[in-house]
Each structure stands twice: as C-alpha cells, then as structure tokens.
Amino acid sequence: MSNGPLHMLSRPRWIVGHVLVLGLSILFVFLGMWQLQRLEERRTENLVDEQRLSAAPEPVEQLISAAGDDLDSLELRRGEATGAYIPEEQVLLRSQVREGRAGYEVITPLLLDSSEAVLVNRGWVPLEVGDGDPASYAPEDGGVTVVAPLVPSQEPTSTSREEPAGVLDVVSRVDVERIGEQVEAELLPLYLEIQGEDRARMPVPAPPPNTADEGPHLNYAIQWFAFAVIGTVGYGLLIRRAIARDADDP
Question: For the whole model, what pTM was predicted?
Fold first, then answer.
C-alpha cells in the first residue's frame, strides 16, 4: 500500500530528479541573466561608437598625441588628415569579400604635412579589376584631405600567418608596424578607414558600422529563460501525474 505522495517524492530517484531539475533551472536562469548583461554591454558599446562617429573630426596627429598609450579610445573616432598619397608604397589586403564577391582592400600611405604618414584604407575592389596589381588602384594626384574613422592596427595573433620577408604588394592584415617596414616615412600607429554608402565609387568605401545592431543576446536570453520555465513546469506536471498514479494504486 502507498504511504502517501510525500513518501513517494522522498524516494531516491525522485530526490535525484529534484536536484537535477533545480540545478538545470538555476543554470538556465544564470545563462539568461548573462545574456542580458551582454546585451547591456553591447548597447553601451553602440552608444560609445555613436558618440565617436558623431564627434567633430580633429587632425589625426593631435588625436593620437592626446590619447597617449590609450589608443583603443580612438577606435572609430573621426580623424582628419591632409597630405598627398604615396601610390608606389600602396599595398592590397587580400581575401576581402563583399556581397559574395572576392576582392582586395586598398591600403595607401598618406604623407602628411608633418612629414609623418598615415595608412588609409581607401576601400574595396573586386578581384578581377586590375588583376591584383596595386598600380591599378592608384589614388588621385596632388593634395587631399581625408576625413574618416580611425582603426587600430591589426596585430598578428598566435594562430595568424607570418607575413613573408621583403617588400609586400599584398598583405593578410593591416599591420601598421609590418607595413611601416616598407614605407619610407614614419607611420602613425592607427590607420584611417574611408566609409560610406557610395557603391558606384571605386574603390568602394567600407560600410559604416551599424550602431543599432544589438546582436542576438536578447533572443538568447529569452530562450534560456524559456528552457527554465519549460523544464520546471514540465517536471511539475510529471510529479503531479506520478502522485495521481501512486494514489490510484491499491
């Protein structure tokens, strides 16, 4: 004869079930809260990016000098650079895909009035244009003023491929220090990336960052909370059914 529902729920297999469901529910809630935290971090990053992109441009030399060692604070801050391009020292960034088409991004040093230089990512060109010859993407002659966001140098990682020795026409990343080895003028530690929506221009400017994109974090949070609710409610229904079945036993 049954000793009652409480006795049934105190059986070892049910105790294990209680602990397992409770542990999973806590884990799912924790993961949901973590995703909400990541969402707030993403929103803060977007707000910072918006403020940097909307700030009035300043000369790149002044921005970098004022930042000191905190160069990361200048990412996406709009800088202004006046000088003349050095087409003979231009390089191409390989393996750049836009809308399903392979191509290059064109990286050209800009010689400033201060005799320093800054790299400028002038945009993307499809693979078939110019057959990968940097001279095919030569910039305009004479003095120019570039106003564009600053971007950190792409430093090599433990898994990245080492660039070969010698003068490079094509590079795998915009590593300012490595490219600086073949540029006569001293390069500033960050580079400028021309951005815009003009798809008819060649090279094609990089698309502006989407500061309204909050990523998948809210959806992930909802999923984790749903898992916690479904697991708890489902287990409760299972217990209710087991109790009812046990009560019907003679």
Answer: 0.73
